[in-house]
Design goal:
- The protein starts with 6 loop residues before the first strand and ends with a helix.
- 34% of the residues lie in helices and 23% in strands.
- The chain has a single domain, classed as Alpha-Beta Complex (Spore Coat Polysaccharide Biosynthesis Protein SpsA, Chain A), CATH 3.90.550.
- The chain has 11 helices and 13 strands.
- The structure holds uridine 5'-triphosphate.
- Uridine 5'-triphosphate binds next to helix 5.
Length: 291
């Protein structure tokens, strides 16, 4: 039996260049999926998995993320006076309890590995989760919850993966895996970030959810740049694998990469269709557009 995963890191310091000019003044993590910023869905997923404290690794121009998770006192008071109880309740539900979030800055966007390393003092010496806030994982049972269940049995490091077409593996971190065991998990034998076309060890990509042991921080400290000239988390994990077990969980659900335009638009449609009222309005429109 392994201890509880209490802390999660959400790296939100990237530049979001694929969404320029939208992300010139608005962080890509604050772009809206139906009626909530994408980062809110990911925070909800973390809380549902039992996470008690979230460390946001932010950067310049990201202060609205901090504001979003703070109290909006005047707005709440106005809603109260106007007796907009439902809107007030929805608003309050977005707010984590006082003292359960921390914000630290990655001063330069040197890569995901560097962003995670920036959280080292706030995480300390306990295992923790990392959730990429632009990856939306839609499932009846949240992705991190699925991973926490595997962690309770196996401990070590747990990585969520899913299939990608073989001709797209060069865009992702790809793992090499052992046989699938009774509880649907498997040992990870290796991983490589953005393998050259034709060299990927499988078609299973790391989809943005990790449970890691704190020893990763020492490796990240020494990590040089890797694919794309960035300090890669995958490279440090590949090193940690020489000392500690890594286990994979194939995510049961649908992932939307909201850092890409197609994924972001698909997520908006999928989440809108979940809402009965909205689905009634947009279904005929979508059918008309599709001819
Ligand atoms: P991405 O590579 O998708 O984000 O990183 P990006 O660099 O912002 O996007 P593009 O490619 O320019 O459009 C995945 C996550 O890691 C964070 C990002 O904010 C995003 O949520 N990240 C990335 C950091 O926090 N710091 C970095 O140096 C890089």
């Amino acid at each position: 039996m392994s201890g509880k995963i209490k802390k999660a890191v959400l790296p939100v310091a990237g530049l979001g260049t694929r969404f320029l000019p939208a992300t010139k003044a608005v962080p890509k993590e604050m772009l809206t999926i139906v009626d909530a910023p994408v980062v809110q869905y990911v925070v909800d997923e973390a809380r549902a998995a039992g996470i008690e404290h979230i460390v946001f690794v932010t950067g310049r121009n990201k202060h609205v993320i901090e504001d979003h998770f703070d109290i909006a006192y005047e707005l709440e008071e106005t809603l109260r006076v106007r007796k907009k109880d439902a809107a007030l309740k929805d608003l309050q539900a977005t707010r984590p309890k006082a003292g359960t979030t921390s914000f630290t800055r990655q001063q330069e966007p040197l890569g995901l590995g560097h962003a995670v390393w920036c959280a080292r003092d706030l995480i300390g010496s306990e295992p923790f989760a990392v959730l990429l806030p632009d990856m939306l994982m839609k499932a009846p049972k949240g992705c991190l919850t699925q991973m926490v269940e595997a962690y309770k049995t196996h401990g070590g490091n747990i990585i969520s993966v899913e299939e990608v077409p073989m001709d797209q593996t060069h865009n992702y971190g790809i793992i090499e895996r052992g046989p699938v065991e009774q509880d649907d998990t498997f040992t990870i034998h290796g991983m490589v970030e953005k393998p050259a076309p034709g060299t990927a060890p499988s078609n299973l990509y790391i989809n943005g959810r990790y449970i890691l042991q704190p020893e990763i921080f020492d490796l990240l400290q020494k990590q040089g740049t890797g694919a794309g000239g960035e300090i890669q988390l995958t490279d440090a994990m590949q090193q940690l694998m020489q000392e500690q077990p890594f286990r994979g969980v194939e995510f049961k659900g649908t992932t939307y990469d909201c850092g890409s335009k197609a994924g972001f638009l698909a997520a908006n449609i999928a989440y809108a269709l979940d809402n009965e009222e909205l689905a009634k309005e947009i279904s005929p429109l979508l059918q008309k557009l599709m001819g």
